[in-house]
Amino acid sequence: MTSRERDDSGGTRKYETIRQELRSRILSGRYQPGDPIPERVIAEELAVSRVPVREALRQLERDGLVSIVAQRGAHVREFSAENMQSLYQAREALEGMAARLAAERVGETYLAAFMEKFAGLADGSIDMDPTAAAELGNEFHEAIARGSRNAAVIELLATIHDRVRLCRRLAYGHASPAWSRRAAAEHLAIATAISDGDADLAERTMRDHVSTWARFLQSRLAGDSPRPGPTEAD
Amino acid sequence: MTSRERDDSGGTRKYETIRQELRSRILSGRYQPGDPIPERVIAEELAVSRVPVREALRQLERDGLVSIVAQRGAHVREFSAENMQSLYQAREALEGMAARLAAERVGETYLAAFMEKFAGLADGSIDMDPTAAAELGNEFHEAIARGSRNAAVIELLATIHDRVRLCRRLAYGHASPAWSRRAAAEHLAIATAISDGDADLAERTMRDHVSTWARFLQSRLAGDSPRPGPTEAD
DNA sequence: GATCGACCACTGGTATACCATACAGCGATG
DNA sequence: CATCGCTGTATGGTATACCAGTGGTCGATC
């Protein structure tokens, strides 16, 4: 778990619920990149004071979803093509390490459920709408991060994954079935390497996967053709 | 424009100066891991209100130097041996990527000053006290991060480097001349690979460097002999 | 004497009010 | 008519006061 999600079952900690709410609005697209997020407006809307709103905005800034500038206000973060490339390179390094560590540490069964589904998606024996497939991919990557058993990697990847979701929605909307299929195939290869305990292969496959899709993202931003390339689900 | 603040970072923004102050106290060892950092005490001590202190503590929590728990207070973060290993693995991935990108992107001259000094330190023709040598190493790693021209990598490594400094001080104090020498040799090898534009070699050398020293750190924590191993300056 | 419970002092969390700065709009001025 | 500057209004930044848990301590009780 990251440092921001402590248990605390009670009603305190409003800023945490506010953070969840704002995060949801940003990732869902209700707030578009560049949109201002004034503390007072949110505070009034959620019937709280500015303080927890401010707290939440700082957290979101830390997660890279919000940009706060001096006396000019908080805005939904904007991502340039260069920003996205940078983000994906950092992600490639961290997810590659996560895959390596997962291959070294976890048992061969913990990805079994994923492998079964990915195999079915790849060969077409399972049908799944793109949104669900994308969500499955997200969960897969998060499972690998957790499987690394490395708190630092988990925490850093958590802050990256939200940004990735946002970038993905910016570059294109949802994925076509063809992309989902390719994504599933690549995910299956990664899961197989991890389950086999082949750390080198796991890292290499994961890095290829991430960088391939980064190139795809760039091509989409440049307006290239949308033929089946990498996956949308990573 | 001499002392005129160009953007917003000058006159206002007390929490920024407070953050610097607290960070300095933590990294210098004045505040030991586990020590409480009550908002009110700091506020009174620095003659400000709790609000900017709170803001600063949040930033430090984000940087991994402070741990804030529910209603129990903020404390200087403690690092277990496992935490340190995790941190260094994440660092290995990110610094490896930074070295790769730097090799691909920057000209061959930007590390020339470092290479000259490291060469002298490695062969003994230059003498430097361990503290200065360690600082040089820090600057070297930061220079590589900047040389990656990758905002995400730079940002993530910035939050890691502070933690690394803290861990280093926890595992041992300063470095012996012998360690500094080995550090310089490894740094020289990294700089050479980057300057040669050999991205693969740069990444590999950097990862070896980081992981070697991570193992050394672990051995020190376990109480092993302090014979010249990796560097202290990374 | 050991144990359990109530109390109290401590912490961070929240609410409200006020301050300083940045920018837009508009009017005076050349 | 263009330009400069003032002012109004927006923002985040800060200060103060109060609320709500938490943990330790001390006393009553068995």
Description:
- The structure is a homodimer.
- Chain A has about 230 residues and is mostly helical.
- Helices cover about 65% and strands about 5% of the residues of chain A.
- Chain A is built from 9 helices and 2 strands; from the N terminus they run H-H-H-E-E-H-H-H-H-H-H.
- In chain A, strand 1 (about 65-70) and strand 2 form a beta hairpin.
- The first copy, chain A, is globular.
- At the A-B interface, helix 3, helix 4 and helix 7 of A face helix 3, strand 1, helix 4 and helix 7 of B.
Measured by DSSP, the beta-strand proportion of chain A falls in: under 5%
| Assembly type | homodimer
Number of helices of chain A: 9
Main sheet makeup of chain A: 2 strands, antiparallel
Radius of gyration of chain A: 19 Å
Helix content of chain A: 55-70%
The N- to C-terminal Cα distance of chain A equals 20 Å
pLDDT averaged residue by residue of chain A: 89
Order of helices and strands of chain A: HHHEEHHHHHH
Shape of chain A: globular
Runs of chain A in which pLDDT lies below 50 for 5 or more consecutive residues are 1-10, 229-233
Strand order of the largest sheet of chain A: 1-2
Number of strands of chain A: 2
Largest interface: A-B, 29 and 31 residues
Structural class of chain A: mainly alpha
